[in-house]
Amino acid sequence: MQREKLLFAVTGVVIGGLAVLLVLSGNPANMGMCIACFLRDITGSLGLHRAGVVQYMRPEILGLSLGAFVTALGAREFRSRGGSAPFVRFFLGMFMMIGALMFLGCPLRDILRISGGDLNAVVGLFGFVSGVLWGVFFLRQGFNLGAARLEPTTQAGGYLFVALVTVMLFLLVAGINFNPEAGGPLFFSKEGPGSMHAPIWIALAAGLVIGFLAQRARLCLSGGFRDFFLIRETGMLLAYGGILVTALILNIVFGKFNLGFANQPVAHTNHIFNFLGLFLLGQCAVFLGGCPLRQIVMASEGDMDAAVAVAGMVAGAAVAHNFMLAASPKGPTGFGEIAVIAGILIVSLIGWAYREEV
């Protein structure tokens, strides 16, 4: 037990430190590592949305996946598995991303925003915890999407996610451009958050380390709160506490701390939808068995259900920006507000429909 707590503490300290390092190296402020934001940027880089300010093939995500994959292989924990309500998981992933893009960040970025003094993120954290509690309510009512099945004859399906990640990394590093006039196959922002990034090799190395630690620690903020509410387990919350404290100290040291609601980087001050955005994300994360970070790690371990959820998140990013659902520093759009409220209702109906007798 002491060894496990030490792992959580070290994981938190290292990830918090790397997040600040990535900001100092060029990533947007309070966005050293954000799974939802970076998946959105990758979605734009692939041309699946055309919001020109958020397009970049983020090496942090690619490194995260490859780091988790290699670690799972080394620990003999790679298992090709899936088949548990995949289409439902796709839509849950999509709504999870829509909630994240309403708040402008995933749970990890929420903690990093708090460490930078952004009080809007405190409102978001209350929403996230409330969404997790709402999801736990359905778990106690018998919610279950079913168990994933191991592939009986081959592990090939589990490798597809990592193979795709490897192809994207190759395109980024090699700089291949099939159509220079159109700017493809990858698109890159010339301004805005997508144009702000750490050097490729620093970002990739940080992602690899975070992937290693996240795989070993089973890191997940929704899982941490879920386990606390269900069985009073606090290990994963210790890890996120380490991220918060480490990043807070380093932000103060390097002059990156700005306490308040107004004038926060890549954030808005609509408290209702900061709360509801992460409420929706927290609810979806409980139903999926993990937040965006955990979904990428599980997909890299061979979990094809998690890979479907990540695909849903990519689709959610495309839908959010193509249909004006994503918020901006100016605040949420009317379409986005409708989508978040509808998402909470639809996900709640899914929770009710997938109850088993308890």
TrEMBL record:
It comes from the Bacteria. Keywords: Membrane, Transmembrane, Transmembrane helix. The keyword Secreted does not apply. Pfam families: Sulf_transp. The chain crosses the membrane at residues 56-75, 87-104, 119-139, 159-178, 198-214, 235-255, 275-294, 306-328, 334-354. This is Uncharacterized protein. The lineage of its organism: Bacteria, Bacillati, Bacillota, Clostridia, Eubacteriales.
